[in-house]
Amino acid sequence: MHSVNEILTLLSNNSLLLLMIALLGERYFTLPLHWHPLTLFNLLATYMSAKVNRDNVQQQTLAGLLSCVLLLILVLVPLLIFRWAADLPQLVDLLLLYVALLYQPYRHWLATAAVAIERGHKRRARALMSRLTARDCESLSEPGLVKSWVELRWYYALNYRLAPILAWLLGGIALLLVVRVLVQLHHLWPRYIPRYRHFGQAPAMLTQWLMWLPYQTVNLLLWLTHRDSRWAVADSHGWWLAQARQQQLLAQRTRSSLGGPLRYRQQRYSRARFNAGRQADRQLLRQERKMLMYLGRAATLVITLLLIFSLVYNQKPW
């Protein structure tokens, strides 16, 4: 019993240890999507949008904002009350952290899509990409598939992995749940689809505010590790500024072309291009996969070293 109490005390005093256990659990023991709690949240959000998303433009914008607030209340209040009343709040934190860090299914689809592109199986690559985004992927050429893959790979790495980790370390379980709920709503209600053009404005804006720190952190790292990169964005038309800066830095780093227009429901939406060299090809795909692999290993090393330091010197990292 004494050792159990020591373990619980250690978990409550070390957020990095909880994070590492949750990351390992999510990596090797991921629940199937149809059993995952976030699937129930997706169904609830879809049902709510079907009920309150009307034709009036002003009503759509207000309804989207109120729906975000209501869903945040429905998720946060019961879970935080349950955590507060639980005898083992550390285990509740661990469970919520495990659920909020869902990433492996998307990572698997992206890795499989990359292999399909490299082998020239464009039809399979398009089908896999359609699972990850609401944009039209059926007519994408190979350069279009590569550029979409690069954009989506970084999007999922930052929004579904880095942002929840930073939220947990900086704001605890409450901020983690807020970030995950808004990221999920932004994915479910994309503004480029006519039905959500106004209804999805609120989650899109709130998500951009919350994603500012993760995106700018990665952008700063990309800029500092490549001497020829330019920080100022020449053209951000159709992009969120931080994401435009990211795409520009990646294009300059790989000396390739990224960005360009999108298609949703057969409608074309103009976006800025970032031309810094050759057309997007399979070599660019391999470069991006290698870059993300090194970044992931570096982040794992940093978290591990901080965890070891906190355990050896008995210091609470946050």
UniProtKB/TrEMBL annotation:
Subcellular location(s) per record: Cell membrane
TM spans (from-to): 7-25, 31-50, 62-82, 94-117, 162-183, 203-224, 292-313
Topology of the protein relative to the lipid bilayer: Multi-pass membrane protein
Keywords associated with the record: Cell membrane, Cobalamin biosynthesis, Membrane, Transmembrane, Transmembrane helix
A Pfam short name: CobD_Cbib
Pathway(s) served: Cofactor biosynthesis; adenosylcobalamin biosynthesis
Keyword Transmembrane helix in annotation: yes
Domain of life of the native organism: Bacteria
A GO MF term: threonine-phosphate decarboxylase activity
GO biological process: cobalamin biosynthetic process
InterPro entries: Cobalamin_biosynth_CobD/CbiB (IPR004485)
Keyword Transport: no
Gene Ontology CC: plasma membrane
PANTHER family assigned to the protein according to its UniProt record, in alphabetical order: COBALAMIN BIOSYNTHESIS PROTEIN CBIB
Family stated for the protein in its record: Belongs to the CobD/CbiB family.
Name under which the protein is recorded: Cobalamin biosynthesis membrane protein
